[in-house]
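name: query_chain
kind: protein
chains: 1
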Amino acid sequence: MASKRALITGITGQDGSYLTELLLRKGYDVWGIVRRSSTFNTSRIDHIYTDPHWSSMSLRLLYGDLTDSGRLTQIVEEVRPDEVYNLGAQSHVRVSFDEPEYTCDTVAMGTLRMLEAVRRIVPKARFYQASSSEMFGEVAETPQTENTPFRPRSPYGVGKVFAFHQTVNHRQAYGLFASNGILFNHESPRRGETFVTRKITRAVGRIKHGMQKKLYLGNLDAQRDWGFAGDYVEAMWLMLQHDEPDDFVVATGETHSVREFLEIAFGRVGLDYQDHVEIDPRYFRPTEVDLLLGDPTKAREKLGWEPRVSFRQLVEMMVDTDLALAHWEAEHGEGRLAPDGLYRTRPAN
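structure:
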């Protein structure tokens, strides 16, 4: 029996790399879409080609862009996937205020372009849309469920609301197996360094090794439902194995503030964050989302999904990885490429 084929947009991102590993372990042939750029941006998946554990498995990359419907159609025609995971986006909320048009072109219209390519070429394929807790924005209720109204407060959130409803519309109008995963914040050692959690843990490592003195942040009282990305990609896969397409909140059901994250992160290395953190108004959003807290009951009951990594485990995992990375930089010079093993740390469950 032939292996299932999966096509992933955003494969070079945090979620894409963990999802790729999960699907390869399950015997899939994995195809990923990457944007052409002047520098390589595949560091999160390079180990799949170099590590003997992964190198015998099937992973192929194709150049493409969510802003190019013609190329997306070509790729879907070539791959003929059984499952499509649409993770690609300009996903930084603060940046979306600076680049609203590009953000919505990739997040909103990019999703429509992928849905249309699937509808026309592989209508029996199963489609996963990466929706976001940022759609809830100025929340109407706490905790947030699949039925909570969307009130987005950023161009990114607005784009994700469009993509969510377009996915539902293709499901209802054309009979596509199309599901939305409304994922709350999820982090890992592979998180981009401009996101607040990774910005914190990178600074902890560098401050501990004397390479940095201060960390500048915005709103320390913002509260989020933070989980581990490696857990959340399992929920994505489970949604496409479900009997019927549906929409699911994926969250831990706990909320923590940026200040709590700082306390654990700096405490991990014996430091007090108040000695090193300063507030910079530049990092405040024009419109802030103060509290996000998800209710994952539906995912637990219908998919059998549970988060395994606790908030403290997540923070400490990220600190330990970035402490090792800072040690490498201190030994070999900043800007040198560190061993990719530093990016694949995970605590025991």
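note: The radius of gyration is 20 Å.
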